[in-house]
Amino acid sequence: RKEVEQDPGPFNVPEGATVAFNCTYSNSASQSFFWYRQDCRKEPKLLMSVYSSGNEDGRFTAQLNRASQYISLLIRDSKLSDSATYLCVVNQAGTALIFGKGTTLSVSS
Amino acid sequence: GAGVSQSPSNKVTEKGKDVELRCDPISGHTALYWYRQSLGQGLEFLIYFQGNSAPDKSGLPSDRFSAERTGGSVSTLTIQRTQQEDSAVYLCASSKPPGQVGGGANVLTFGAGSRLTVL
What we know:
The complex is a heterodimer of chains A (109) and B (119). Chain A is mainly β and 109 residues long. Chain A has strands spanning 4-6, 11-14, 19-25, 32-38, 45-49, 55-57, 60-65, 70-75, 84-91, 98-99, 103-108. In chain A, a hairpin with a 6-residue loop joins strand 9 and strand 10. By secondary structure, chain B is an all-beta fold. Chain B has strands at 5-7, 10-13, 19-24, 31-37, 43-50, 53-56, 65-69, 75-79, 88-95, 109-110, 114-118. Classes of the chains: A mainly beta (109), B mainly beta (119). The A-B interface holds A 32, 34, 36, 42-46, 49, 87, 91, 94-102 and B 33, 35, 41-43, 45, 48, 50, 55-56, 59, 91, 106-113.
């Protein structure tokens, strides 16, 4: 079983749509959770951290379900500029951050 | 520096040659990570440094791969006797130490990567 699993997509949505990605992790001792964004042929960049209580940043909402060991990312009112690969990232204290393979989003006009 | 700097940005080498990739992390970032990403694939963890020590080197694919970090700053990743399957983008990232004001202990800032092509 892979440590961090994501649906690779691609998710093809029109502008203005709402889209949700899920990510599951296998290590119940994981403590930190993040979503990163990676544009084509660029390095990953932090999109947002994921907190136990859930958190929102503008059109983006992240949630964590520790009991079921999954993390979600909701994007509302999708923009063309949201087209990218979204990477789920998990780690335990003192260990390396493990990346999922990413979910590709394509927003079209 | 202002960001994570990696060099070379591109390296083309012949099978069997050795290569060295360099990473200069953000000043004050004690944690440093190496990942690699093959075309169309996810990030594969290679090794993680905290200061000059490597608590987790479990991702190094073979004994042809080694990495070191000196002075708690610059790190070099060395690949000996390169093979075609080593072709990938090698990404370095650094993060703040835990407990620092403003948090961010596990938030990674990546360099632009070193694209390695083994012919």
